C-alpha cells in the first residue's frame, strides 16, 4: 500500500480540532500520541523523510490541533496534541482531550495508534491510562520509546516496557534508530486490512 515514492508525496493537509473539520473519512490513518514534547512531530518528519513538515519545538505543547498529513493517496498520518502538559489552560486541555478521544473512538479510518514514550522518563501513569483505554476499546496500538540516543545501554535494559508484554520499538530521530522498523510495522498494518 505505501509505495517507495511516498516520502516525496507527503504533504500537510490541515490542523483542526472539531470533527466537522476532519478530512473525509475514506482511506486509512495512523495516529501518533503521547506526552507533550515526547517527540511525536520529530518522528513524523523522520517517517516522512522531511525536515520540517511537522513543526518541532523545544517548548512542550507545540502541537495544539489534530494535524493530518497525506502520505499518499488513501494514507494519512495524524499528529495528535500531546497529553500531560500543565502549562496550557485547563479548558484548552479539556477541549483537546475531548476531541482527541472522539477521534480515536469514532474514526473508522483509524488503523493504528502509535503511543510514544520518552525513554528518559519511561512510562508514566498517563501513558498506562491511555494504553489501557486503547486496549479496552479494541483500538490497535503500537508502543515505542523515543530519544533512545539520550540514555545509556544500562538504562535501556531497565526500561519498563521491556519487562511487560507490550511489544515496543526503540527509536531516535537523531540517529535514525528504529525508524525503518516502525515504517515496516506501519506498512504491515496497512497491508493487513
Ligand atoms: N536527542 C533527541 N531529541 C529529540 C528526539 N526526538 C525529538 N527530540 C527533541 O525533543 C523536543 C520535542 O520534540 P517534538 O517533536 O516537537 O515533540 P512533540 O511530541 O511533537 O511535542 P508537542 O507537539 O509539544 O506535544 C525537540 O527539541 C526535539 O528536537 C530524539 O530522538 N533524540
Ligand atoms: Mg508536536
UniProtKB/TrEMBL annotation:
Any GO BP annotation: division septum assembly
Domain EngB-type G: 26-192
Cofactor(s) the protein needs: Mg(2+)
GO molecular function annotation: GTP binding; metal ion binding
Entry keyword Repressor: no
Keywords, in A-Z order: Cell cycle, Cell division, GTP-binding, Magnesium, Metal-binding, Nucleotide-binding, Septation
NCBIfam families on file: GTPase_YsxC (TIGR03598)
Family classification: Belongs to the TRAFAC class TrmE-Era-EngA-EngB-Septin-like GTPase superfamily. EngB GTPase family.
General function of this protein: Necessary for normal cell division and for the maintenance of normal septation.
Annotated protein name in UniProt: Probable GTP-binding protein EngB
Organism (species): Holospora curviuscula
Amino acid at each position: 500500500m505505501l509505495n517507495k515514492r511516498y516520502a516525496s508525496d507527503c504533504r500537510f493537509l490541515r490542523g483542526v480540532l472539531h470533527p466537522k473539520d476532519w478530512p473525509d473519512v475514506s482511506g486509512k490513518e495512523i495516529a501518533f500520541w503521547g506526552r507533550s514534547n515526547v517527540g511525536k512531530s520529530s518522528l513524523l518528519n523522520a517517517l516522512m523523510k522531511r525536515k520540517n513538515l511537522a513543526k518541532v519545538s523545544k517548548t512542550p505543547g507545540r502541537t495544539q490541533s489534530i494535524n493530518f498529513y497525506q502520505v499518499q493517496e488513501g494514507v494519512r498520518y495524524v499528529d495528535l496534541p500531546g497529553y500531560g502538559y500543565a502549562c496550557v489552560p485547563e479548558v484548552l486541555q479539556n477541549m483537546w482531550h475531548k476531541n482527541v478521544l472522539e477521534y480515536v473512538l469514532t474514526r473508522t479510518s483509524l488503523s493504528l495508534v502509535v503511543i510514544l514514550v520518552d525513554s528518559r522518563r519511561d512510562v508514566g501513569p498517563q501513558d498506562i491510562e491511555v494504553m489501557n483505554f486503547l486496549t479496552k476499546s479494541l483500538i490497535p496500538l503500537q508502543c515505542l520509546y523515543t530519544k533512545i540516543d539520550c540514555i545509556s545501554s544500562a538504562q535501556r535494559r531497565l526500561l519498563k516496557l521491556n519487562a511487560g508484554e507490550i511489544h515496543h520499538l526503540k527509536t531516535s530521530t537523531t540517529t535514525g534508530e528504529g525508524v525503518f522498523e516502525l515504517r515496516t510495522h506501519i506498512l504491515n498494518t496497512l497491508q493487513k486490512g
